[in-house]
Amino acid sequence: MEIGLAWAFWGVSMLFVLTPGADWAYAISSGVRQRTTVFPAVSGMLIGHICAVLVVAAGVAAVVVASDLAMTCLTLIGAMYLIVLGIQALRNLAASPINAEGTLSGGNRLFAKGIGISLLNPKVMLLFLALLPQFTSTDASWSIGLQIVSLGAVHVANCALVYFAVGYGANTVLSRKPRAARWVTITSGVVMIALGTLLLVEKIMLAIG
Q1: Less crowded by CB within 10 Å, the N or C end of the chain?
Q2: Residue in 39, 45, 28, 46 with CA at minimum distance from that of residue 171
Q3: 91-123 pLDDT, tens per residue?
């Protein structure tokens, strides 16, 4: 694999990861609850990214990208999922930050939601389905699939660094400020609902146009 392409992808990947979105909102909302909820929530998002990498490496992405209907369906599902998560975040405001979410079953739910956040996140789809293959080379000694897996590992490492920092940072800063934590939770919920709504509107406008 060409080192220059790898470094270029690292920079693009980090820009994507550092851009706040549904992933940041989920990491922050998990950190607001309690420290122990950050690990399952972020780990779920990382597993989702790994699954996306494997799908791209297996060549399924080429089929999806070639089908407008498949891409539209994935985007609509992701948009609706974000809206549902945002509504759930706002509805759970009345609950205590330290509750059953910290238990094993709660950890499993956070883990599963994290996977869903990643797999249905349009930002992840854009990076993996459209951009990642552009950083591979047919002249390299490694196969295209191996190059994609290696670049995907770089992206997952970036995600782990940033998302864990965001989650634990939110816990450290906001756990001492309940009112601020409440507003962050509200903001996270609104952000997810807004992102989902914008995606739905965009697809509807494209269909009408």
Answers
A1: C
A2: 28
A3: 766 544 444 444 444 688 889 989 988 888 777
Residue 121: which residues within 8 A CB-CB, separation 6 or more?
Answer: 21, 22, 23, 48, 78, 82
Q: What distance in Å separates the CA atoms of residue 126 and residue 20, rounded to the nearest whole number?
A: 15
Tokens standing for residue 40: 């399952």
Residue 165 in tokens: 């920092």
CA distance 152 to 132: 8
- Note the pLDDT tens digit of each residue in 154-172: 999 999 999 999 999 887 8
Sign of the torsion formed by the C-alpha atoms of 49, 14, 63 and 26: positive
pTM of the model: 0.69
Rg value, the chain, Cα: 18
3-state secondary structure of 102: helix
Do the Cβ atoms of 16 and 129 come closer than 8 Å?
no
CA–CA gap between residue 61 and residue 54 (Å, rounded) = 10
Q: Where are the domains of the chain?
A: 3-66+97-177
- Calpha distance 209→180 (Å, rounded): 42
What DSSP designation does 2 have?
-
In single-letter form, the type of residue at position 176 comes to R
Q: 143-169 burial, b if ≥16 CB within 10 A, otherwise e? A: eeeebbbbbbebbbebbbebbbebbbe
